[in-house]
Amino acid sequence: MVKSSIAGLLPVDFFTQGYRISGYVNTRVKTVGDILNDRLTSYMQLSHVYISRVTSPGDIVATYPYSYLRKDGLLFAIVPTEESRSKAGRSVSYFGRQRRPAWLALPTFEIEGDFLITGRSMDFEAYLAKGEDAYIPILNATARVAVLPKITFGGEAVLVNRTSIALFCLGEEP
């Protein structure tokens, strides 16, 4: 991931089936979660972009000052926690939130981390099938290349494209 920040721009790593795209996202107005979950746009603009293959993440294959990334083609994005939830999707519950261990299978990746449930219980099938947000936040997450499990990517939060999830396993309360 690009380490240093540029005023108003946040460094974010995006992943497709074969590539890691590292670049800066303008977060002056919206969080990354808001941008990814905005159904009115299909693309998002990135600046200072570095592209590498997921099987050799240290080797940069291309760099560009600007790019447009198709949102529905992404598997997931690694972001800071505060950028993981859309402002509209934040909810409050008398019962608070529960952190549950989660394991997800996506094309070419496995993701492990914590899933937040608001309230006492949740209709998980309805959440996955009919949820409002296109991207689901998994906190304290590690993404692993399935065929090369020694290659991992981690961060405070991973925004997972709901349509890319082949298997979502949810553990019991700790």
Summarize this, please?
With 174 residues, the protein is mainly beta.
**Would you state the CATH class of the largest domain?**
Mainly Beta
CATH fold description of the largest domain: SH3 type barrels
Helix-strand string: EEHEEEEEHEEE
Uncertain ranges: none
Number of strands: 10
Beta fraction: over 45%
Radius of gyration: 16 Å
Into which percent range does the helicity of residues fall?
Answer: under 10%
**For the residues shown, what is the average pLDDT?**
87
The outline comes out as globular
Q: Give, in spatial order, the strands making up the sheet with the most strands.
A: 4-3-2-1-5-9-8-7-6-10
Number of domains: 2
Main sheet attributes: strand count, strand direction, barrel closure: 10 strands, antiparallel
What does this protein look like?
- With 174 residues, the chain is mainly beta.
- It folds into two domains: 9-80, SH3 type barrels; 82-170, SH3 type barrels, CATH 2.30.30.100.
- The protein has helices spanning 32-37, 124-130, and strands spanning 9-15, 19-26, 43-53, 56-70, 76-79, 97-106, 109-118, 135-145, 148-161, 167-170.
- A hairpin with a 2-residue loop joins strand 6 (97-106) and strand 7.
- The longest helix has 7 residues, at 124-130.
- It is globular.
Layout of SSEs?
Elements: E1 9-15, E2 19-26, H1 32-37, E3 43-53, E4 56-70, E5 76-79, E6 97-106, E7 109-118, H2 124-130, E8 135-145, E9 148-161, E10 167-170
Antiparallel strand pairs: 1-2, 1-5, 2-3, 3-4, 5-9, 6-7, 6-10, 7-8, 8-9
